[in-house]
Amino acid sequence: MSFNGAMSTAISGIRAQATALAHISDNIANSQTTAFKRTDTSFYDSVTLSGENFHLPGTTYAQPAYTNNVQGAINSSSVKTNMAINGNGFFVVSEAVGSLDNQPVLLNVDRYTRQGDFELDRNGYLVNSSNYYLQGVAIDVNTGNPVGDVPSPIKIERQFLNAKQTTSIDYEANLPAYPKTVNSQPTTPGSELLLAGTFANDPTTQTAGAANGFVQAGEESLFLDRSLAGGSITVYDDLGAPLQVQLRWAKIENAAGSAGIGGGDTWNLFYKTSDTATGVAAKWTNVGQDYVFANGQLAPAVNSTTVTGLTINGNNVGNVVLDHGTSNVTQFEDTRGSITVNALDQDGFASGSLLEVSVSNNGRIVGTYSNGKSVDLAEVTLVRFNDPNKLQKLDGGAFAATQSSGEALIGAGGSIVAAALEGSNVDIADEFSKLIITQQAYSANTRIVTTADEMYTEALNMKR
Questions:
Q1: pLDDT at 55 over 70
Q2: Of 292, 311, 346, which one is at a domain's C-terminal end?
Q3: Model-level pTM?
Q4: Which end of the chain is more exposed for a tag (fewer CB within 10 A), N or C?
Q5: DSSP states of 20-60 as a string?
């Protein structure tokens, strides 16, 4: 091998180690950068000529070895719109190239990042510290389902959430086999029952057009003494006005024929129609459904029933479905003799203004409103690549797709961790170890250059 060849190989080694040093420097400088992906160095040799009995080395060169698929540590964050990806996915983001009328002008080319330090800007966009705009799909606030599947920059509008009229009440309860009402006497059979003959009109029967199926205001005390409280709940009319619904249960028939023994017992459910009714006006209204029990279960089953024209103090809420689920209204013995309400909820709400925005662990942007309602507003899009290490690195922790990386594939990109940030995947101790090795290799290559130069000088001096 010639002196020039030795020098050439050593100089290529110097260049390669300088490249490695640059990668190490970049890694250490970004050891605290959110979701930074370190760049390792791979070395390759280039052989000029080689055979069985001879070898002429050529040069060596260094190439970056990207670690875009290596997860960084996930740390909690106090910012509710921060998010981290647990898995191999990427956020889809847009890059701002300017502004017009105080609105960003976004480049119509998708970029990708794992830097999830997103926060709301003044225009309602979710933007990270590198000024990339998060993409996702909007959510229909009424159905909770995504609107389409093409991601676009997420923009949260600070508008009122419209009121929603109550249409369904979820109600699950256990009724006691023997109700301990004010009027009940265990030694007096039937004293626990609400009997139609006790009242001026029959509250246990609801016939269209007939004056029955309700309790007159003047007889409310009789009704209260023969019934049990079944809970209360706030419902909402079409304007979002809150209305309090009070519920009471009354046992109207004991099929076993004696007090305290259930074997085909019938109950009715009532709601309070008016707080101010007097005289013969309706105070409590029967929902119009017989609940018949055998061996503690409804027979036949009543999974739901519709209250027609639910009216509270003159405000008509409309038809409301009482949803009891599957066998979730029961009649089992209760030592207190009272109603145990296991579930009582409804689907309506008043209007409200947006108070704050957060991210859920299922990757949805959630708005919390002044009415206490939390609503999914958008769904963050995650994508993956067949070869993420072939993505092109851009400023600010962003990447661009390349032919080698393949196109972005929506879905199966891992899961989102809310109120968290992914740390850099740089290991400082490892980088310092590589730094020492690089320095030694660099010095060794410079010694080869020096030695080759000295030998070359000695060869020139031979003719003197």
A1: no
A2: 346
A3: 0.76
A4: C
A5: HHHHHHHHHHTTTSTT---EEEEEEEEEEEE-SS-EEEEEE
